[in-house]
Write a structure and sequence with these properties.
Elements lengths: L2 E6 L7 H16 L3 E6 L5 H12 L7 H25 L4 E4 L6 E3 L8 E4 L2 H8 L3 E5 L2 E4 L4 E4 L4 H12 L4 E6 L20 E3 H9 L7 H10 L3 E5 L7 E4 L15 E5 L2 E10 L4 H11 L7 E3 L11 E9 L3 H10 L1 H4 L3 E5 L2 E7 L9 H11 L6 E5 L2 E7 L3 H11 L17
Parallel strand pairs: 1-2, 1-9, 2-6, 3-6, 9-11, 10-12
Antiparallel strand pairs: 4-5, 7-8, 11-12, 13-18, 14-16, 14-17, 15-16, 18-20, 19-20
Length: about 425
């Protein structure tokens, strides 16, 4: 008997008909001889609608962070209860649990709590009794404050992986509106083809680079705890894509040179111009950024200019989440006198394209293919960043989709058939 954790996103439980469909799939999984734990997100756009409601009663609802967590967790509780009711109505037995009832203990930070402990005692009791356990994703409980917390965007993926690790599940299945992990976002590149398998390192790089199919925190958790993931569609019987935490023993599968292309339009760029070329100045800049509570991605510093050591200056460019742009730029401008830079440039119209593949470690010519494809498509490159299995470039957001299509074709990733997207969000 296998133990399977299944996570269904908002598009999968968007209305009553979809909830009944999910209930049928869950029951089929159990009747195939498996123990089943289900993690659900809020229905459809419920979370966004709740945020809109909060903004209608307050100009700054997040100032009441505790109350926002109380509000937002209601969406997942609705989904879990409705799914449990639907399963029971179809002849199986199920029990629903909030994050705290499921034993998800977290840090005290409202809105972006971190999982500190998972003790799924009640979940195990339900499974031992032959029931299907339904868990509200995205939420947990802090022992010290005795408050409900939320895990941030994509938190339901993390909930599912954490429960799979704690229960020693055989696999954690992530259901969405596409048939698996594709070589690119099929909404951007319809010719993208589905991968049967991908290693966890490549999946982590794709998630970090902007691929929406899996949240990066969930992939990190899966890697840390050796949890195998399977990405599938709620709306088809396709077996999906297996994300291996470790390569299967005896596997002779050679790692592909390029596993996929990821794009991200949620980034912005700041350039600090005329920063004194002195030891410690870069550290001061990024200390200000850190104190503004922003995570940076790519960094480029040009060669210092100046006649002699006393007047040498440099420019530093870096990317950061688009939503952090105003706050970080304001913090840097406030520290201008201390930092000593000449001016600040902001660019909200950038896009990041990343080429990812574990096979890049042992194959040459990847960079040449990438940059030739971009040049032939007339794409200008603003920044470049690399890792052992990833090359990322920054270009104009208006050119990003064209760049992705050109690079995808250049690496021979185009399929002869068009990918199927059953809903439209990827979550």
């Amino acid at each position: 008997m296998a133990l399977i954790v299944q996570k269904f996103g908002g598009s999968s439980v968007g209305d009553a008909a979809k909830i009944k469909h999910v209930a049928k799939r869950v029951i089929e999984t159990q009747r195939a001889g498996n123990q089943v734990v289900v993690v659900v997100s809020a229905m459809g756009d419920t979370t966004d609608e709740l945020i809109d409601l909060a903004q209608s009663v307050s100009t700054d609802p997040y100032a009441a962070a505790r109350e926002m967590d109380m509000l937002l967790t209601s969406g997942e509780r609705i989904s879990m209860a409705l799914l449990a009711i639907a399963i029971n109505a179809q002849g199986a037995q199920s029990r629903s649990f909030t994050g705290s009832q499921a034993g998800i203990m977290t840090s005290a930070k409202h809105g972006d709590a971190r999982i500190s402990e998972v003790t799924p005692v009640r979940i195990q009791e339900a499974l031992d009794a032959g029931d299907i356990a339904i868990v509200a994703g995205f939420q947990g409980f802090n022992k010290d404050s005795k408050d409900i917390t939320t895990l941030g965007r994509g938190g339901s993926d993390t909930t599912a992986v954490a429960l799979a690790a704690a229960l020693d599940a055989d696999v954690c299945e992530i259901y969405s509106d596409v048939d698996g992990v594709y070589t690119a976002d099929p909404r951007v590149i319809p010719a993208a083809h589905k991968l049967d398998a991908i290693d966890i390192e490549s999946m982590l790089e794709l998630a970090a680079a902007g691929a929406k199919i899996l949240h990066i925190r969930a992939v990190e958790y899966a890697r840390r705890h050796n949890v195998d993931l399977r990405v599938r569609s709620t709306f088809s019987t396709d077996p999906g894509t297996i994300v291996y935490s470790t390569k299967p023993e005896g596997s002779k599968m050679e790692e592909p040179i390029v596993s996929g292309i990821a794009t991200d339009k949620g980034q912005a760029k700041i350039t600090v111009i005329g920063l004194p070329d002195e030891p410690g100045k870069a550290a001061e800049v990024f200390r200000v950024v850190a104190e503004a509570d922003s995570n940076i991605d790519m960094i480029v510093q040009n060669n210092p200019t100046g006649v002699d050591v006393t007047d040498r200056v440099a420019d530093i460019s870096f990317t950061l989440p688009l939503g952090d742009l105003g706050r970080v730029a304001g913090a840097l401008e406030g520290a201008k006198a201390t930092l000593g830079f000449r001016e600040l440039e902001q660019d909200a119209d950038i896009g990041k394209l990343s080429v990812v593949g574990a096979g890049m470690r042992t194959h040459s010519g990847v960079s040449a293919t990438l940059f030739s494809a971009l040049a032939n498509a007339g794409i200008n490159i603003e920044m470049i960043s690399t890792s052992e299995i990833r090359i990322s470039v920054v270009t104009s957001s208006k050119q990003l989709d064209d760049a992705a299509r050109a690079v995808h074709k250049a690496f021979g990733l185009d399929s002869d058939t068009e990918a199927t997207v059953y809903a439209g969000t990827g979550r």
